[in-house]
Amino acid sequence: MFHNKKAGWILGCLWIVGGLAQAGDIDLMNQFTFYGDNTEFFEPFRVRETILGQQFKSYLDGAVGDHTFLWGGIFADHRSAQDTATEVQPILSFIYRTDESEGVLGTIQPVARHGLIEPMEVTTLELTRPIEYGLQWIQKDSFLHMDAFLDWQQLLSPADREVFDYGGSAILPLDDLFAFEAQIHGYHIGGAMYGGLVRNNLAGGIGLKIQIHPRELGKTYLEVYALGSKDTNRPLYPGPTLGSGLYTKLSFSPDNAWEFFGLSWFGQDYMSEEGDSNYNSLGADGVYYKSSRTYEELGIRRFVQIESGVTFDFELRSHWIEDAWANSFRIVAQVPFDLGVMTVPFKKTE
Amino acid sequence: MVIGKRLWLLITSWIVSTAFPAFPQEILFHNELTFYDEQAEFNGPYRNEESLFGQQIKSLFKVVKGPRTEFEAGVFADHPSAMDPSFQVQPLLTFEYHSSTTRLLFGTLDSQDRHGYLEPLEAEDDEITRPVEYGLQWIEEEDHYRGDFFLNWQKLNIVDQPEVFDYGFVAKGSTSPTMDLELQFHGHHEGGKLYFIHVINNYVPALGIKAHGDLGPLGEGSFGVFALASSDFEGQFITGPDWGRGLYAKGVIHPGGWFGIYGIYWNGRNFYSEEGDNNYNSQGLEPAFYRTDRIYEELGLSKTITDDKSYSIEAELRSHWMDEFWAYSARLVARVALDVEVPLKEKNSKKDGATDVP
After folding, report:
1. Quick check: A28 and B348 CB within 8 A?
2. CB distance A339–B19 less than 8 Å?
3. CB-based contact A194:A158 (threshold 8 Å)
4. A6 vs A132 pLDDT, higher one
5. How far is Cα A338 from Cα A301, in angstroms, rounded to an integer?
6. CATH for B7-345, among 3.40.1350, 1.20.58, 2.70.170, 2.40.160?
7. Residue A28: left if φ>0, alpha if ψ -120 to 50, beta else—which one?
8. pTM of model > 0.90
9. Pick from B15, B194, B344: which is nearest to A49 by CB?
10. Domains in chain A and their CATH numbers?
11. What is the pLDDT of residues B52-89, one digit of tens each?
């Protein structure tokens, strides 16, 4: 018997999904992620941080109809240390899927932070928040590539405020060379039912991407975004409500394996709650404030598909935050291990 | 949600238990049981009396993904023998990339024999009290060279707790069939900018030479001499100077091949190693006790019975002289390994984008 009710609830969910999905294919999807992310930032905007650990995701993927699926399983995150507890979260989702669309209700497994750029969502969220709960719609056709979501982070109760973030990214390919892009990200703390301050942060923008594939240069692209931000009711916030910024990224990948990239940022009173705070005007201590901001980044990334779905990702970055310099790196190994559990012909419901 | 660690047993076994009935599988289920008893009858000033007695189990699944990669997933449990039925459970999760001479580990490390460290660099007790380490490791093993480089993360940087990690390497090269040159380094760091600003660093390098070979009636023997240094910046014990040094010598013989007899001699000056055996340090357990020049000697008998596969029994009896103090200690460790090949077949296809990488 489990001493923890939630642990028992998770295993109960697994059993239920396993039972419901017996009318179709059932696969056991497993993924191990081994990660290390080290940032040597100094104040005022970000502080240094090391994130090192292992994650394990295991869930049953059962087809319950031609276009409908269920996921049921667990996600566990163990930070590397001798005395850490292991964070375990349930995976329980209903999925509607066609050739061009996918809708998810329940547990969301975001890929690359829903496509959001760094000023909207900081890259470490890929490791610290690899699963989310809410709604997601992914569209991928010749007209539109889109990932829209609502991620519920904390429910409203007498003791807690409701917290959620929402938004998405969209790409409209204009031709083989140009694409129009748009992104938005909102963050909300509220719950008027029990009183308290309601806070909202919204960041968004539009961009243009120029992508070329010359045979001798490999994949290369230039991306330019004009962003705006709005931050309301943040206690003791020293800046104005509205802010703006210009984000430029140039990426050059001569062999589609090594990637060399550079980022440039000009900001004016920009503030994003979940974005990389190196782009914000507000310092990490919540007091320091610099209205006009510049930030630059140069980096090298190597993504290797080793074998049998095993991948290794390495990234080394150099950061210029105003007149300060810092470095950071990331290594991530991902190991999938999917198992076919059973295949049962569909049962037609009368 | 944070759960009790014993649920790891269910989490890691769930994959196999769910899939097991459906397909033939190919997987190695590795189990290792360790029964240990360590008695150290020290009465200060450098170490205190200590008894370690208990059982450990390491149980994991090894899955080979291809010629270059594999992963392990399982649990480790330690139960110090007592009426208290609680036990410590830790996850075992390792990704390994390897070639014929190289192993790169990510996750749970291979910390067998304390990476090969001398006692002044890492205490022998760690083999029992810290059998599981997490971080990064690179092991290179060639005909005339072996290197073990690692980073072991011990504590996270959270409120009221600094980050703690140790790191280092043991590199050994053969200059002839009977002579090895060895370089060791062990670092210990406490700090972390997120919530804690006080930073502690301890560095201990060692360089030495070791001769080994057949000594006839004295059996297999070896003799090694190492020069050590230590630097401790803002360490826990701030009585002594930042820099220290020491000379370490150890000889081993196996008369008749029945048992081993060994002796250790240590001459230190202001030496301090955070993770080493404290009998070698100048700083005593009490902050007020400090002795600049240190002499330490140890004599021991050892016996190992093993089939090099499924079991080993190691016994050791030691006599210690710490300056004018004397103490004794003993260790008995039995290990049993049990591997079970389980048929398992991985499915190649993926249904969703959850494992996609941009």
Report:
1. no
2. yes
3. yes
4. A132
5. 27
6. 2.40.160
7. beta
8. no
9. B194
10. 5-343 (2.40.160.40)
11. 999 999 999 999 988 999 999 999 999 987 777 678 88
